[in-house]
Design goal:
Number of domains of chain B: 1
Number of strands of chain B: 8
Number of helices of chain A: 8
Helix content of chain B: 10-25%
CATH architecture of the largest domain in chain A: Alpha-Beta Complex
Strand content of chain B: 35-45%
Order of helices and strands of chain A: EHEEEEEEEEEEEEHEHHHEEEEEEHHEH
Largest interface: A-B, 42 and 37 residues
CATH class of the largest domain in chain A: Alpha Beta
Distance between the termini of chain B: 27 Å
Order of helices and strands of chain B: HEHEHEEEEEE
Oligomer: heterodimer
CATH class of chain B: Alpha Beta
CATH topology of chain B: Nuclear Transport Factor 2, Chain: A
Distance between the termini of chain A: 9 Å
Radius of gyration of chain B: 15 Å
Chain lengths: ~425, ~160
């Protein structure tokens, strides 16, 4: 690609072709590209995850979180609706909300006690009319000061099935159109209207570029190789019945798989991570009971670009929130949940199977590690590239998992939006 | 509680700290009874009443499975860990058990890098006397550390 005079990109990135089967290390290492990604993916035109309705069940409940790198507050208003506002006081710009959750009748910035309704409307400015002293009025805001113009920055909000998304950009398509019909089907399978029950959080900081986590869950090639538990116990491996699907823009994806036989099988288990003789001392880790809503698949992993991963791995379900922090690190927040009609037994099963996932998980702990070591190499040699050619160089849905097509698809979209 | 019992208790804590700082992970399950509970839980979940734990083990068998995972199945950067434990605070003695707790800090040293504070918090424990000496019947490790530095592989 030639750089023209009108190119506004911070610097020339070398792609080997017009395709995306070779990804320049620079997309992970450049601060200016990162800022542009925040602007074009997190702050414009994309619905970003903020939380679950079950986290703020009552009027006045709030949760502080982020959209991209900006602090926001999700709160349930007096009308029962959900509001999302930016955590910046309209007066002096302070990030006033310090608790991460709680219940309030209003938001008050402690600095000068400007107060806002749960919808983010400015309702109180101390000494707005000045202070009377010895027959005269000292100070006060100018006569034309209009509180209606100085509320908190309000985000557009969309909720479906108990999951809440927000957007700084109000001129945005519906959440349903954003996901597209193919992904929506799998979203609705998980969030089918039942009330959710929060089981708890795990928070980790991964020193790698945020896109690497999207790529990790768009890469069905690695789980049966890196993750001994998956290949040995047949939970996720190359000979499982599976499907990979994308939205029409190839930004979102779902990896759908059905658990196959454990044990030895042809080429699939000729890998060092397969442990033929491995037996659990306590098999309750894998005490899996199929649930009616699965409708067949035992695992569906959804990537919603750019901010969210939705996990169903047998009885363990969670949201995983990607919170970028500069080009070289992101915070990764797991919210495990269950459903209101869960029995005590199924709740225990979800908690037990959560041992496979999260920052210490028998499976997921490895993922953070490989992301860290990839980033280390990218930083040391930014002009090199990764090779994403398993299953070809094209982009398309497949009926197997021996492919990196979803990563190629994501970068096809990335190049279009980033114009590089 | 007499001096002899308190001495045994402090030895148990000291032994445990030495074991999980030694790199010999097979030592770890032996500090527990067969039917035991080990949970490593963020303080946030503990205080808000959420049951999710980062590690959630319900038997000595599960602890042994974790040891196998550390050695054979979990790909990770090797690191040293050093667990430093405060003096155990005895909350209650009776019914054949000791309810006690202690503050702790874990320092991590990765190869060729400086040492960092990895994880801090307190343990909330139930200790029982067995023919093999004092053992943990239950150990709840509640950590303050808000962000796990990538991954926790070894037991705390």
């Amino acid at each position: 690609m030639n750089e023209s005079e009108t190119t506004v990109t911070p610097k020339h990135i070398h792609w080997e072709s017009t395709g995306t089967s070779r990804i320049p290390f620079e997309v992970y290492t450049d601060a200016a590209i990162h800022s542009k990604e925040l602007d074009r993916f997190f702050y414009r035109n994309h619905w970003c995850y903020v939380g679950l309705e079950a986290e703020i069940p009552n009027i006045g409940d709030f949760k502080r979180t982020v959209v991209g790198e900006r602090s926001v507050i999700m709160a349930r208003g007096e009308d029962g609706g959900i509001n999302v506002v930016e955590n910046i006081c309209a007066h002096r710009g302070m990030a006033f909300c310090r608790e991460r959750h709680g219940n309030r009748k209003e938001f008050v910035c402690p600095y000068h006690q400007w107060s806002y309704t749960l919808q983010g409307n400015l309702q109180g400015v101390p000494f707005r009319r000045g202070v009377k002293q010895e027959g005269k009025v000292n100070g006060g805001m100018p006569a034309d000061f209009d509180p209606a113009e100085h509320g908190l920055n309000k985000l557009a909000v969309a909720a479906r099935g108990g999951v809440v998304f927000a957007s700084f950009d109000h001129d945005i398509e519906s959440l349903e159109d954003f996901m597209g019909p193919v992904i929506l089907e799998y979203f609705d399978r998980l969030f089918n209207g039942r009330k959710l029950k929060i089981l708890g959080y795990n928070r980790q900081r991964i020193p790698g570029n945020w896109k690497l986590m999207q790529e990790n869950i768009k890469d069905p090639y690695h789980p049966g190789l890196l993750h001994t538990w998956f290949v040995t116990f047949g939970l996720w491996r190359a000979d499982n019945k599976s499907r990979l699907v994308m939205d029409r823009l190839h930004r979102h994806a779902a990896m759908i798989s059905t658990r196959g036989a454990a044990g030895k099988s042809g080429q699939v288990t000729q890998v060092s991570s397969f442990k033929e003789t491995m037996q659990l001392h306590d098999p309750r880790f894998l005490d899996i009971v199929p649930e009616p809503w699965w409708g067949g698949p035992t695992a569906v992993m959804i990537t919603l670009f750019p901010s969210l991963i939705l996990q169903q791995q047998v009885n363990s379900v969670s949201t995983r929130h990607i919170q970028p922090d500069g080009h070289g690190a992101f915070n990764f927040v797991w919210t495990h949940f269950g459903f209101e009609d869960d029995t005590e037994e199924i709740t225990q099963r979800r908690l037990r199977q959560a041992n496979l996932f999260g920052p210490a998980g028998f499976v997921s702990a490895d993922d953070g590690e490989v992301i860290e070591f990839s980033q280390q190499a990218f930083e040391s040699r930014p002009l090199h590239h990764t090779l994403v050619e398993q299953g070809g160089r094209e982009v398309g849905d497949t009926d197997h998992m021996v492919t990196e097509t979803l990563i190629r698809g994501m970068y096809e979209y990335w190049r279009k939006v980033m114009e590089i | 509680m007499d001096f002899h019992d308190y001495f045994d208790l402090t030895q148990l804590y000291a032994d445990y700290a030495a074991a999980v700082s030694s790199g010999d992970w097979d030592l770890w399950p032996e500090f527990f009874t067969e039917e035991c509970s080990y949970r490593l839980q963020p303080r946030e979940n503990h205080e808000r009443g959420f049951p999710l734990a980062t590690l959630f083990f319900e038997s000595k068998g599960m602890l042994k499975d974790r040891v196998y995972g550390i050695r054979e199945t979990l790909f990770h950067d090797p690191y040293y860990q050093r667990l430093v434990v405060g003096t155990p605070l005895v909350r209650k003695v009776g019914g054949g058990r000791i309810d006690c707790e202690a503050n702790y800090a874990v320092f991590r040293t990765k190869l060729s890098t400086e040492t960092t504070v990895f994880n801090v918090g307190r343990t909330i424990d139930v200790v029982v006397r067995t023919p093999q000496g004092l053992k943990f019947e239950s150990r709840l490790v509640v950590y303050d550390s808000e962000l796990i530095p990538n991954a926790i592989i070894y037991p705390i």
